[in-house]
Hints:
Blueprint: H1 2-13, E1 16-18, H2 32-36, H3 50-53, E2 63-80, E3 94-96, E4 98-105, E5 111-126, E6 137-152, E7 157-173, E8 177-198, E9 201-208, E10 211-221, E11 225-233, E12 236-245, E13 249-258, E14 268-269, E15 273-274, E16 283-295, E17 298-307, E18 325-336, E19 339-355, E20 363-379
Antiparallel strand pairs: 1-3, 2-4, 2-20, 4-5, 5-6, 6-7, 7-8, 8-9, 8-10, 9-12, 10-11, 12-13, 13-16, 14-15, 16-17, 17-18, 18-19, 19-20
Amino acid sequence: MKRCFWILLILIGLLPASRADAAALAGLDMSATAAGAGNAFTATADDPSAMHYNPAGLAWQPGVNFSFAGALRSEDQSVLQSATRGTPFNGQSLSNLSGLYGNWMPKDSAWGLGFALDLPYALNSSWGDAFDGTAQTTTIDVLHTAVDVVYALDSSLAVAVGADWYVAQGDINSTTTTFNGTDNATFGGHVSVLWRPRPAWSFGAMLQSGANINLSGTATGAVAGTAKVKVSLPDVLRVGVNHVFSDAVRFEVDASWTRWSSLSDLNVVGRTRELNTLNMSDSLSLMTGLTWFWRENTQFRFGYTFDQAATKDTAFNARIFDANTHRISLGAGAELFGVHLDMAYVYAYSPSRTISGSGVFDGKYRTRRQTLSLSVAKHF
Length: 380
């Protein structure tokens, strides 16, 4: 059985997924368990991927537990401009995206540890010569490692405190400037709580601090030589409540606030500078998820999520494009070969968004996304 588990981990790690999602450059669907329920998981947090949603939930996961997740996603994004400019497509590529989560909660101990290795922030836009080449390609990958200390105050209340370490790489290119840079040491932190006042009710919250990533590297073209690009990751607050009906149906509602206004630009700064001004606003997301416990160790999930756009119409920049997005999800989970497998399908729909008054970026933008994710979890 253990051999099957490790084979599944390898297979999931090979699954590709595109790099950006709604809400600027935040990665979503970090586990199939949460994705199937619309990512409403803050007050549930009942598998190791709680490290992403609410690490305090690890207090009720005794022993040693691991989960691994991967996703395959297709995306279609284009903009309808004037007859002379045509209809350029965002030619973003696909990349491997997966998450590894684990925890150790010794038996009869109130203390435990959790860890995570994932890619919570990523972006890849490739507009080529569209927009006069001012937003040719933009690539940002932020690898995240987290370690948490978990403490159960009693049988109904747990808290967790953790540290975040970010390693990042980025390319910011236009027809006039090409930049590539890295940052190997940016740190942040987070705190979370999970409260279960009654068997059928639970409440969760997680606050994660932002972090300033400074990509350092070399630029060529109009900005030549040593250069830097600052990427400000946002503060994030998640809250959730869930209720279990008749031991058969669990319903959860989550809300999250993300401080995208901290990301004001992607300027390439050296002896000279190339401006890539962004006009970002803080965004809200509402997540709802229903889990039906059909049989022991077998669940079906349904979810709906609304993600508010983080980019404003005024001073719009297509390097980071999003729109108000509706996400419908279906999922299922079951025990198989001694591990717990979860699958989820997510369809994301963004109504067409018209940008006017921003000059070269004016046009009618359209985006559709589909995601198929798979997670495997194992208790040792």
